[in-house]
Amino acid sequence: MTEPTQADGAHPRPGDTTADASPGRTELSRRSFLVGAGGVAAAGHALGSGQDAVGSGGASATETLSGTVDLELRVNGQAKKVAVEPRTTLLSALRDRLEPALTGTKIVCDMGSCGACTVLVDGKPTYSCLTLAAQCRGKEITTVEGFGSPEELSDVQDAFCEKDGMMCGFCTPGFVVATHAALDRKPDATLDEIKYELSGNLCRCGTYPHVFEAARAAQARRSGGEGK
Amino acid sequence: MANSNNGAADPTWGPRKDLDVLNRDDLRRIDGPDKTTGRAVYTHDVRLPGMVWAKLVRYPRARGTVKNVDVEAARGLPGVVHAAAVREAGETIAFSGSDSVVALVAGETPEAAEDAARAVVVEVEALAPVVTADQARADGAPVVRQRRRRPPKDNFSGLRENGEPDEVLEAVAGAAAQVDVTVEIPTQHHVCLETHGHVVQPGEDGEPPVLYASTQLVSVLGQQVDDAHGKPRVLTPHMGGGFGSKFSFGLEGKLAYELAHELGRPVHLMLSRSDEFTMGGNRSGSWQRLRLGADAEGTLTALHLEAEKHGGMGGGAHAGAPYHYEVENVASSIQSLHTATDANRAMRAPGHPQASFGMETAVDGIAYQLGMDPLELRKKNLTSPTHHRQLDRVAQEIGWNDHPNRVAPGKADGGVHVGIGFGVAGWGPGSRKCQVDVTVEPDGGVVSATATQDLGTGARTYVAAIVAEELGLGIDQVTARIGDNELPPSVPSGGSVTTGSSAPAVKHAAHLAREALEAKLEPVLEAPVGSYTWKGGRVSVTSDPERSLAWREVCALLASPLRVTGETQKSLYHGRIHGAQAAKVEVDTLTGRVRVLKMVAMQDQGLPLNRMALRSQINGGMIQALSYALLEQRVFDAQDGYLLSDSLDTYRIAGSREMPELVAIIDDDDERDAVSGMAEAPIIPGQSAIANAIYNACGARLTRMPFTPDNVLEAIHGKV
After folding, report:
1. Is B29 strand, coil or helix?
2. Which of B32, B42, B457 sits opposite A170 (nearest CB)?
3. Which of B52, B297, B625, B626 is deepest in the core (most CB within 10 A)?
4. ipTM greater than 0.95, yes or no?
5. Is the Cα torsion angle A120, A124, A125, A128 positive or negative in sign?
């Protein structure tokens, strides 16, 4: 159901979403979640501004989701229908609920420590384990599968293969996505800046030096105009 | 590659300069495109029709008596498929680990399983935790490991004593230089990014069960499974790290297997990260006291080691004394001290990093006491010329000869100081029998197949590359099939045995395929078996290269697929490896903060099968050692027995900003015509080299890992 909240879509005020805040508002529970400027912030997921919050196509709508709902997500340029609960993370929506599942995005720490679940949401690297699927309606989600395929690798994926930027490979998708985001944001990043940009991702096998080399190789090729 | 003209012959690896595929600097691993695009399917990623999501419910503390496990509320929740206690009232939870699993739940979705887990009501009467070494040693401590026959009276076990302690201690006391040092090493976790677990497709209608398993022993995992439903198929196309922790079907496997058959539906049961830290194994911690004596020239004369291995419910591991260095007179006393915590498992070079840390600390101490160069003192007491060569090379690479503190350390004067330290390694990788099938199709396709697993080492790549080399093909012309127990048998990947076992078998199979093809060529190119050269996608008569055929033309001679089976050949393997490392650190002696600036490792292993993947593994060893040295330790709450370090926030591992400059040097002076595994060796000496570098920088001897600022400041100022 949808109902309007703050008319101007301004910064949300905590307390707006208490269960009895207004007649007709559905009670907020673990199984329901208010989507929109007020709801998102009040639930503890403070976003930068009201404009950053997710509404169904607009800035000021708040909607209560309850039970299992069908959501449309834009994943790798395609509209995908997925049945989620309000609490379903973007990570779980991609891995566990999409048909067919997109399992390139990995689950490792499930609490925003390791970056294995990194995807792009509207171009920004995002921990999908800390992001609710319902927050991503209307946003462009890019997973590791969206950058390239084994037959047609992205420049970063190719550089990871060229420099052996992987061992077991379980952290690799997160690093590939984070490296794409880093090079897009900072085409001239120094080695130290690349290390900083990738510091949200953990690897256990110890691939870091080759990951850095891969990032540098992709960067060099882009600046030389050879990138794909 | 060139081959002899003497008819059928035993395979050899041949001169390295003649190799086109192996030993290259730019050989890409063949599963790179799948791994970098997210197409590689790991056990965690397996999705089967009708699959349910299972989850373990654990008592979160160490010891207790079960009063009640109530699953009724969980059963009533929407989407919950299964909720059952696995422990009964009155039973004892003996330790934090698999023993603390009290219930198993499953749901139609991960969220439903989560709900069910939270709804299980667990009542346990807590017992004294016994989770720290001090608690386990205390007089009257509860005995955590029970045994029906000859019940133990305390928490010690497995005492092994060697040598004549009195004589040795007397020799140490009379030595020109003496070190008496006690070191403490915390428990380390493997931290496989893919947790332990399985997806089980139940066996039915005469079809055997299928286990998708994140395992290090594809070939023989099935032997750990009750085969009432038929011999299980085991599939591990990719696995997200093992490091020695994934040799067991485990409680999680057993429960998933039983549940799948009870429900008649596939079950997905992967440990949560918290489960993984609690019950996924560890490297045992250690307490050691070393007393080492040397003569005035720096020759080590006597060593006494007293050690406790802290392996929880397991025995723990320690590689013994002396570690690599020659010491004339040695006595040791090593025993296990048990706590009520998860048993240690094999972890990359079990017992060796612990032994290295104690020994290298003591050896380093002797050098500075005598005012000798610690590099020279090491070489004086190491007999292997390989160790000498490798130490010299890493010293050169790290800049030892230009370093000011070569015979005396810097000072902890509140400033920031740079130091350099060293350590050595060694390992005896094995080789056990395994088999490989190579199939050549009339259309030119080649498949190399064996049941091995690729833990990230690059095993899949050499399964193809060795065949490509032998047949003069590109690596993309050979398909590698691994990770399936229906393929020819392979070995469990432990103790660096995989390469020494698998690679010779691949080579043998490829060699047999080549000889079988040469037999087909005899009537066509009119030269006997053994007188052909296979290179660049063509075969030619070695003595008359004009007589040649393209690969496709060779295969067209086959009426049906050619299949040969190779077996491990001992002549293709030689497994005695060394290794030396150097570390350069910066120590802020005011704050105690340590930054590793550079690490250098040199490693021998015979013929490199893939130089880039080899450097990846050497780097990995250094990085895991750096992480162990600076960050890692398992922490229990001693009062209540909770595992506090059960997440990647509370159990830190090294990230990109901790990365120093890393130099991985392949020892190309090791010219043996053989292959060997090497993964264990490069993880062994890194933390020792870092500790010695800290001493070299500022004169503070770090005896307790990890080298966090508080431990560094304590080493500088003493306990405050």
Report:
1. coil
2. B42
3. B625
4. yes
5. negative
